[in-house]
Every structure is written in structure tokens, then in C-alpha cells.
Amino acid sequence: MSGRAAILMYHIVDTPASRREARYCCLPVSFAEQMAWLRDACHPISLDQLLAAQQTRTPLPENAVAVTFDDGFTSTFENAMPELERYAIPATMYIVTNRIGGSNDWMHSRGMPQRTLVDAGQIREMHAAGITIGSHTLNHTRLPEIDMVQMRAEISESKIQLEELLAAPVPYFAYPYGLYTKAVKSMVKEAGYAAACSTRSGFNNLGTDRYLWRRIEVFDTDRLWHFKQKLRFGTNDAGWLLPLKYYGSRLRARIAWHK
Predict the structure, then answer these.
(1) Binning pLDDT at 50, 70 and 90, where does residue 244 land?
(2) What is the 8-class DSSP label of residue 138?
(3) pTM higher than 0.90
(4) Which is the CATH superfamily of the domain at 4-258?
(5) Where are the domains of the chain?
(6) Alpha carbon distance, N-terminus to C-terminus of the chain
(7) Per residue in 77-119, pLDDT tens?
(8) At 140, is the secondary structure helix, strand, or coil?
(9) Please, are residues 17 and 113 in contact by the beta-carbon 8 Å criterion?
(10) Are 74 and 122 in contact (CB under 8 A)?
């Protein structure tokens, strides 16, 4: 048993349509390979299991890993769902509520390709298949940059709309762009969410703030060895020198402590 868990963060499970969106993509063949490895080498868990472990102070399984997707791309639904079902891996998808059945205008306006987002029927299908549905606000808004009235609507109304769609609780939230302030975090808690995901990298232990869960982002350039290394060290960065840097820093810290 262990006291920590990694949460993976994906966006688009598809071939990049442009160089600019490439970092947000994971090739379907790579995703399938990663899920197969997770099933064999790790212990896939749901966010519910992580939350329960924190609330009861119960150790997590060794190599516990949760899978999450931001934004709700149709291509992710089409390419990721079969692999999740094949390997019985739980997952969470964060939905931009006012864009259900629409497109990723917040990315398209920044020069990236336009992509469709899941519709209400696909969201219900995921929910019925055991995928947890979470909120990613109404409009994928930069929450610290809007007033309190707008902020409350983005956070609370998105939860209400999803719960009406699913006739089920929506307990989890993800901060768009990873941006939050103390006020944003407090409003997420007040809205009734049980926990929220950030974009900070690292592991989550039993004492990690459940409204700032850390996640490890998967990029289009990640080969399986990059993926394994990210999960081993709890970082977004991966490379041949990472183990040397990691163990070197630990050795320097140990030497400094003994001086």
C-alpha cells in the first residue's frame, strides 16, 4: 500500500491537426499503449477512490493512477472510450457546459484548429459507462480575470446544468488554464464540489489539498518511456537526464543535511 497517487491529464486523444495544438494531443496509438501499460504495471483508481482515501486517511494501492480529460473533445470520446473499456480503467472527463455539442472556441480564437465537443447524448453515454463527469466551467473562462458574480455563475451554474443533464451529482471541478486564486478556490468549495484538479504537476498524498489536486500532463511527443518516467518521478518533464538530475538533487540535499 502507498500514500500517494498520480493523476494524468489529457486533452485531445487524436492526431494533431496543427503544430500549435500538438502539445494538447495524444496519438490514439500512444494512448492505447499507455492504457495497456497502466493496466499491467499500475493500479488505476477513480477520483472517488482518491477522495475516500484522503477523507478516511486510508493508504492507497501501490502505483495508484487516475485518468482525467479536460474539455470534452469528441475525438477523445471516440478514441479513448474503447481503450478505457478494454482495460477497465476508470476516468473523469471535465465538460465545458455552455459548449456541449459545440466547439473549442477558446482555442480556435488563439489560432488553433476548430474541434467539436461531445454532445448531451455522448455525455450520458459516458456516465452510463462509468466515466465520471466533472465541470470545467460554463465557458472555459480565466476565472481570476472576471468579477465575483460571473465567477459564481461559471462555477456553480455549470455544476447545476450537468447535474440536471445526468440526474446525478457532479462532485469534481477542474480550473480552466489551471488558473485560480484563494477566492476562486473558496467559491469552488462553496458551490459544493468535493474536490478540484489543478494543472500543477506532482503526486497527491493523503494530505494534499483536495481543491488543488496535482496532475501530470501527457503530450503528443511522449513515447512510452517518457510516460513511464513521468509517473515514476511525478513530473511533466521527461528526458534522459531526468533520473540523474533527480537523484543528484536528493544526494545534494542529503549531504547538506549531514553538514
Answers:
(1) very low
(2) S
(3) yes
(4) Glycoside hydrolase/deacetylase (3.20.20.370)
(5) 4-258
(6) 34
(7) 999 999 999 999 999 999 999 999 999 999 998 999 999 999 9
(8) coil
(9) yes
(10) yes
